[in-house]
Amino acid sequence: MTHQWLANYINAQEGGFRYADNVTRSASDTFGDREGNCLSLVLLTAAIAQQLGVRVEYQEIDIPPVWDQQGGLYLVNGHINLKLLPQEKGHILNVSAGAIQIDFLPERAMQGYDKHRVSRSMVTSMFYNNLAAEALVKREYDKAYGLLKLSLQQDNQFLPAINTLAVLYRYKGLPDEAEALYKLALAINPEDMNALYNYAIILGEQDRLDEWAGVHKVMELARIRNPYYYYGMAQQAYFDREYQLALRWYRRAIEKADYRHEFYFGLSRTYWATGDERRAEVNMRKALSLTNDSNSKRRYQSKLHAMKSH
User: Fold this and answer.
1) Distance (Å) of CA 38 to CA 78, 95, 141
2) DSSP assignment of 43-61, as one string?
3) What integer pLDDT is reported at residue 189 of this predicted model?
4) Where are the domains of the chain?
5) From 2.40.30.110, 1.20.120.740, 1.20.1250.20, 1.25.40.10, which CATH number describes the 227-309 domain?
6) d(CA 176, CA 230)
7) What is the C-alpha separation between 285 and 277, in angstroms, rounded?
8) Given a cut of 50, is residue 184 above it in pLDDT?
9) Tens digit of pLDDT for each residue in 102-122?
10) Which tens digits make up the pLDDT trace of 272-290?
């Protein structure tokens, strides 16, 4: 069956394609680079499936949000996979071969999370919004705007793109337009935490404290779920040389997001400052194992070498 062949060909576990969560690529770029994030790999699989006449179903997975920080922006990464469906020949459907789920994060045990089907247009919106967010981090504002227009043309109620556009308006000094978009997002989903978080920023900047307080009641719970809240507190404590306090905050950040290499790096250097060289080395090795960034790898390897030479 063709869908079985494609599943074997695309299988990231066999070394054909490598999962890399840092950049969103087009299907052709993913094919050429042999790597991509989950959305890039899904798009590549779907593109090949289309050429082979294999039908697909896209699925969004309700995993806990994966937080990242780039260029002063907090980014929340979701997860998507797809199913390859057995072929229909004429009026005959082969029922001996079932649908095959393709997922590039097997360690996230799909049995544990709800999933729901999404349309191709929504996946296309996700793609353009991802590219827009990456452009926004690089301060390529015109490029980000064009990509967001493409995203919202696919689905004009796609909340992540509405939020990204509002952030872009705020960066460009257009607070009224940004506020209108946050209100639109909250009209679609009154509990959208991204819209609430960003709306609270605008209200605070304008000293609209009564409105800010109302939003902040909801926002406080969301803030304490953000691992970078604890990371920021840890960083401040470290630079204030309050090392025991910094250790507690770094550990809290890791409890929320044990996949972030910079949290372990912070923990390592704090242990080093307290004289606990063994734990410092253990956590530096953990930071090194978690990063795919070449600059961070060199930095952590250099730190490890210095620790061993000490």
Assistant:
1) 9, 28, 25
2) HHHHHHHHHHT--EEEEEE
3) 86
4) 2-118, 149-224, 227-309
5) 1.25.40.10
6) 31
7) 12
8) yes
9) 777 654 444 445 678 899 999
10) 999 999 999 999 999 999 9
